[in-house]
């Protein structure tokens, strides 16, 4: 059994919890690489998807793709490394959500300075045609000390 699966404390069918964990891994990879094709695969394309973060709110997949991933992740940073910890995944029927803390290591595109930020994030998921898709992200500054 993978170490992350043993650490899960949220309720729900094990297969669904693992599928959502894989979706979070893909999300992390999309942040790190700004892979827009991968991003398109993991997000729902329904009009109500949303992303709330310290720079604002984005509604709809196209806005999330452009403003969060192209402009912020790709435009501001030349390198990105998102690390997650303390993850809990919950599943109830065709909906799920996760909570986790993260550390984001990056290099600013302008000037090349190193940046490290810490956050706490909630993600919401929906099963669409048998596949889990991301429908909402909300993150904010993490005020807990990093272990």
UniProtKB/TrEMBL annotation:
SUPFAM superfamilies: NTF2-like
Gene3D superfamilies tied to this protein: 3.10.450.50
Top-level taxon of origin: Bacteria
Domain DUF4440, residue spans: 20-134
InterPro entries, alphabetized: DUF4440, NTF2-like_dom_sf
Designated name of the protein: Exported protein
